[in-house]
């Protein structure tokens, strides 16, 4: 998958130069130090795919120190003399590949690993990285904090979109590479650690408790979490048997309770619209976090920096289909995540006493041409600093409403369900979404998308 994508992107000069080194002579060559995404050229790595991550993390809230071991089970997609992982800060003390000591070096956020012997293409191999230190979040191009975000009391808000995974574990950190995870976190008694998927076990010994989590569906690194706090925990099964696990900071508990109580209803409602819920667990992590300012659709269990309102819960839940199960293969297509999750809010509001979706579109269209909404096209943000700006969210939702008004409800919801169903656990891009919309509706939609998804400024007519 990675190799195929890299070839497709090789037309870009930077990448062509990188790949020239990687393809000489037919012998072993270094993996590329990038997944080839122009918005985040330093993210991700070529030459291998991580099938599974096993992370053992020990965290001391008093000193904020993390002591960790990561075991990555990977497959080489080329003959590899060396390969790269993404890791920001922290100190690596040892790396082994298939049980043998490997050489390693650091440069910026890249950890280069050179195994004792080249890895043949197709080989499955195991990399063990031992590392420690006080993790530090990174600042994204839009100015927001991302990654392992420590709070004054030692609790930690862990979110990784788009590039923060590297602040707490070594990874192939681009949504092109999706993997299963086991994340075990050991914290002092009284503290809890909450990750993705199901809690396999919770064991206390010598004043510390280990929370061992399993995410068995493929997950992009940015959707992993291991959030730590003195949480109130609630766990139960929905009427359909889906396990729900909520971890809530006591300071937010009262405000969060009525909204979190809606999780089963929101999952059931979205399942009727988008097709079956893709994962085997659900829930929420609600923190009382400073300096974050956003929520994230961490897979199976979204994380909120405060008690969410119902629209935010509906939004992050919709991302489980759009963004988590069906992933981007380049950040430019962020509207496929944010526009869809925002449209889910429009649908919820329309059915719960709010304005209809057509009225929403009309109200947005009425905004003056100087409004932020029109500052760049939803389908072409232009730079990494813009991916979480207004257009991918709000204009993204407008595109979907225009599509719905053009093709009718029956075709529109068939498009959404087919997108989520056919690409479940995989990837999709904008051109593929346009093609699917044309196929299902039987209509030519190029001018609709040219105007509403890619048009600069405010369209001349509503
Ligand atoms: N995907 C998140 C949401 O819409 C937003 C993440 C923003 N992250 C950031 N680094 N600015 O719910
Ligand atoms: Zn979102």
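Q: What amino acid sequence fits the structure above?
A:
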């Amino acid at each position: 998958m990675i190799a195929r994508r890299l070839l497709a992107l090789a037309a870009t000069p930077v990448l062509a130069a990188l790949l020239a080194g990687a393809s000489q002579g037919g012998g072993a060559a270094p993996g590329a130090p990038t997944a080839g995404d122009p918005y985040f050229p330093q993210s991700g790595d070529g030459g291998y795919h991580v099938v599974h991550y096993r992370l053992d993390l020990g965290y001391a809230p008093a000193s904020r120190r993390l002591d960790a071991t990561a075991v990555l089970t990977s497959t080489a997609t080329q003959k590899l003399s060396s390969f790269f992982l993404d890791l920001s800060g922290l100190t690596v003390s040892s790396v082994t590949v298939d049980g043998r000591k490997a050489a390693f070096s650091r440069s910026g956020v890249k950890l280069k690993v050179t195994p004792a012997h080249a890895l043949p293409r197709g080989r499955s191999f195991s990399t063990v990285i031992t590392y420690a230190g006080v993790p530090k979040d990174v600042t994204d191009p839009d100015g927001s904090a991302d990654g392992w975000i420590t709070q004054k009391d030692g609790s930690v808000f862990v979110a990784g979109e788009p590039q923060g995974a590297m602040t707490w574990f070594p990874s192939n950190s681009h949504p092109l590479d999706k993997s299963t995870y086991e994340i075990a976190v050991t914290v002092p008694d009284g503290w809890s650690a909450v990750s993705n998927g199901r809690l396999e076990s919770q064991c206390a010994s010598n004043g510390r408790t280990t929370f061992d989590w399993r995410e068995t569906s493929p997950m992009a690194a940015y959707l992993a979490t291991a959030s730590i706090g003195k949480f109130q925990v609630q766990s139960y099964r929905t009427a359909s048997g889906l396990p729900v696990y909520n971890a809530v900071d006591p300071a937010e508990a009262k405000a969060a309770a009525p909204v979190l109580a809606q999780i089963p209803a929101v999952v059931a409602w979205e399942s009727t619209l988008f097709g079956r819920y893709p994962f085997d667990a659900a829930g929420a992590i609600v923190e009382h976090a400073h300096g974050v300012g956003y929520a994230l659709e961490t897979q199976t269990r979204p994380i909120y920096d405060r008690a969410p309102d119902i629209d935010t819960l509906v939004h992050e839940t919709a991302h489980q289909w759009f963004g988590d199960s069906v992933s981007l293969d380049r950040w430019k297509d962020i509207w496929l995540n944010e526009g869809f999750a925002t449209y889910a809010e429009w649908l919820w509001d329309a059915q719960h006493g709010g304005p209809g979706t057509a009225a929403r579109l009309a109200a947005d269209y009425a905004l003056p041409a100087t409004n932020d909404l029109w500052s760049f096209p939803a389908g072409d943000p232009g730079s990494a600093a813009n991916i979480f700006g207004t257009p991918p969210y709000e204009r993204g939702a407008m595109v979907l409403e225009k599509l719905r008004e053009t093709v009718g409800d029956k075709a529109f919801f068939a498009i959404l369900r087919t997108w989520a169903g056919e690409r479940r656990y995989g990837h999709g891009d904008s051109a593929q979404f346009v093609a699917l919309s044309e196929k299902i509706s039987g209509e030519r939609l190029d001018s609709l998308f040219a105007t509403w998804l890619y048009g600069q400024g405010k369209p001349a007519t509503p």
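Q: And what stands out in the fold?
A: The longest strand covers residues 48-60.
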